[in-house]
Amino acid sequence: MENNIVISMEQQFGEVVDIILQHKSRASRAVNEELLLTAWHVGGYVSAKLKSEEWGSKVVSQLSEYIRSKRPDIKGYGRSSIYNMVLFYDEYSSETFTSTVERYLNSEFVQPRIGQIETSVFLSSQEANAIVQATSAQFVQPLAGQMPKILELTTFTNHTEILCRCKSNEERLFYILYANKEHLVKRELQRCISNQTYSTLLSSKNNMSKGLLETYPNAPVMFKDTLFVDFLNLPKKHSETKLKNSLVENMKQFILELGKEFIFMDQEYKLNVGASTYKADLLFFHRGLQALVAVELKKTKFHPRDLGQLEFYLEALDRDVKRSNENPSIGIILCPEADRVVVEYAMNRSMSPTMIAEYKRILIPQERMQQQLNEFCNLFLTKK
């Protein structure tokens, strides 16, 4: 009874957090859009000057110094920042990027975000001509294509990180959507890119049971099959207790690895069955799926018997803990290694919503990632 009350309160607290985030998002969205439009217009202007060879790299430095000296109240326009704006414009205005977005999403996301620039009146034409040619128009349209709406999904700082560290348009698209979905700030996004979330989330899902895939069709693009726990600084040889305690101590970082819709409930969660008491290593609640998630930790290679133990815990959770308005409980075995053939055999006949996750990097075929990216984008569209 006490556990049910705790879970109920956690769910209600989560709903309050959702309300706060929704209003906070609305308040900051308008500001973010203007910052992005500024970067787009400045980047487009400077890009045109550089491509026409009217400007060289020294002129960009002079522009930065000019802004710093003439308008010290305008921050964020150092030489490197201006070049980031040029990169922002050049890469995202390209036909290859817009066609990628249209292929995985739809034309709505490449429709232009229309914005006009009011000609500044705080500089004399003589001052402005030191760097750029003055314009006599009161309003000027951006020099080339309008900014696609999809860019509004995250911040310019995040876009810069994505552009500098991700090479393919598919990968860039993924991180734009993922940063929006998980509300990632720069440091969190950096970690996701370093840990190859793009690869691990969009990999083959032979590690998922039939029961999980049938009960939760979107599971392949919601659960990673590889988690990075380098922040624990664990020795090569460690106990399951040490692993569990370290994860609890670093729960904020662990949830970033799992996904921000996970709410941590308890460790060594007691399950009373008959005259015996069992303990699930870690218990979470997934807000998006409205389901309990039990995580069992193993310090050794996956063994099929581990799955039987986890399925037993899920049955106990569904019978005695799950509320009537919640969906079937999900089980995850987190282990350092798993033989893919053994996992596939174990998962093939399991009708419980279970999966195996490792904490090591796995390389996957590019074509499989493209298929999974398509599924991830479809999931994003259904939530719009």
CATH class categorisation of the largest domain? Alpha Beta
CATH topology of the largest domain: Trna Endonuclease, Chain: A, domain 1
Overall geometry? elongated
Count of alpha/pi helices: 15
Strand order of the largest sheet: 5-6-7-8-9
How would you characterize the overall build of this protein?
- The chain contains 15 helices and nine strands.
- With 384 residues, it is an alpha/beta fold.
- It has two domains: 27-153, no CATH class; 204-363, Trna Endonuclease, Chain: A, domain 1 (3-Layer(aba) Sandwich), CATH 3.40.1350.
- A five-stranded mixed β-sheet has the order 5-6-7-8-9, sandwiched between helices. Strands 1-4 form a two-stranded antiparallel sheet. It has a two-stranded antiparallel sheet with strand order 2-3.
- Helix 14 links the parallel strand 8 (327-335) and strand 9.
- Helix 3 packs across helix 6, helix 6 packs antiparallel against helix 7 and helix 7 runs parallel beside helix 15.
- The protein is elongated and about 80 Å long.
Give structural attributes.
about 375 residues; Trna Endonuclease, Chain: A, domain 1; two-stranded antiparallel ribbon; 9 strands
Concise synopsis of the structure shown:
The protein is α/β, with parallel strands linked by helices and about 375 residues long. Helices cover about 50% and strands about 15% of the residues.
